[in-house]
Amino acid sequence: ESTSGRHPTALKINPTAFYSLGIDISRGGCFLALIDFGGNIIKEDFFEFCYSLEKTVDKIIKRLLLLAGDYKIMGVGVTSPGPADIKSGVILSPPGLDLFNHFNIVEALKKEIHLPIYFEKDTNALALAEKAKTNSDNFLFLLADHGLGGAFIKDGALYKGNNGFGCEIGHITLDFTGKQCFCGNRGCAELYTSIPATVELAGEE
User: pTM (2 decimals)?
Assistant: First the structure.
């Protein structure tokens, strides 16, 4: 709105101009979605993983292409629990997600889907969504489930560090003589703060 000068012309995004596809690889299974240019979910799908990685990836691709249909797709966004090598597109070794251990999800998708593919750790994506929702420029986002994930928004941007591992908070050592973690270190934070760790502690009590 303007109180002087020429009468303003209001502009808005045309949500049907373009679409994108989303893939969320979680411990419960795989979520797929078709999203319009306004960020609205148009169609979605979910399935549990197959017994083999090859069949699971094949299922992801086939169902994703069904969602895409004849829509004008700009690209594909992929998320997974960390740790993940965002630069190379490799899901490293998230606890409880052994099927995708050290698997390059981006390269596998590029063989069949000829679109730009963007890969991000799930907590980073969630932090960006939180920033868009709250318009906050500096905060630490924590996600405690099967592990302990974190993301850091600094001065309005996602902080990743030099190699993309800037906020692997679950593997900060709390006890140098503590339990052995799958990452090779001892006493990592997620060994004491994740849901499985809490359940185990409750059982001991």
Answer: 0.80
